[in-house]
Amino acid sequence: MHPIPALPTGALAVSTIEYVRSCVTEPVANHSFRSYLFAVLLAEHEGLLPTADYDPELLFFACVLHDLGTSPKAGGAQRFEVDGADLAAGFLTGHGVAASGVDLVWEAIALHSSAGIAERRGPLAYLTRRGVGLDFGGGEFISDAQGQAIHARHPRLRMVTSLVEEIVRHAARGPQNAPRFTIAGELVRERGPEGRPTELELAAPASRWGV
Fold it and tell me: Residue 47: helix, strand or coil by DSSP?
């Protein structure tokens, strides 16, 4: 079995982790951390080499910052993916990350819910989207022991419902936040005024990693 990846420990990585924890709920923060670890395992599985094929630092930033749009700190006047990308770009720029790298992270975050588009925008956007998706189940190449170790470090804490609630809350801030057929738009439609469970929540108990 390959070693279990870990979150980086450099000064900017630690600041990024602290920033995420200050912005989003604990379940959403843990989801973001797991997304990065799953993305690293996916890259290894597919033979993608850090530095040669993708920038490992930018992958960390894109995955760990990808749900900032669910934060109350988000502007609330656009889709949560774009709000999150803007927040991430502002944070990284303020910490001296080069504009070219910030732009790649912005794109990966803005497209992380866009199936069929992120996959064609280079390794960073591809790995970010797939890493996020793997936290909802799947990934036969990930062993049970790897999955258990990652979840022991970063527990789920009913992540799916927490994330849905935060996306719906953000969507309620303005009609432009949940256009029809977007992730937010569909979650708002499914939840309805009655507060019904969404299809994502109903499917979670039967998924590989659970709720």
Answer: coil
